[in-house]
Specification:
The protein is built from six helices and no strands. By secondary structure, the chain is an all-alpha fold. The longest helix has 15 residues.
């Protein structure tokens, strides 16, 4: 879980997630999931934030049943597909979810 202050401190990243979700035509549940996942797993290092935000968006869409490709999420967040691929399962696990086995 995160504190309200975390949302304020990461306002720029929440806005980026929202813009990317708009571009991917994701619904409100997927957006909310993505923001919650990101704020619950925000890394200390600024250089890691883009990849974690993209992985959170991908995972949030999966949870909501609005699957998008890793490539399309990566493009929307301006990171590599490999960044999403390498982090999305860890984001889910850290938040108490069990990633799919496929």
């Amino acid at each position: 879980m995160y504190r309200a202050r975390d949302r304020v401190d990461n306002e720029e990243w929440v806005a980026r997630l929202t813009r990317a979700a708009d571009g991917l035509d994701l619904g409100s549940e997927a957006r909310s999931n993505a923001v919650d996942l990101f704020l619950s797993n925000t890394p200390e290092e600024d250089r890691s934030k883009p990849a974690v935000a993209a992985a959170s968006l991908y995972a949030g869409a999966l949870i909501a049943g609005e699957e998008r490709s890793q490539g399309s999420v990566a493009a929307a967040m301006d990171v590599t597909r490999l960044s999403v691929q390498n982090r999305w399962k860890a984001v889910l696990e850290a938040s108490g979810f069990r990633p799919p086995e496929w």
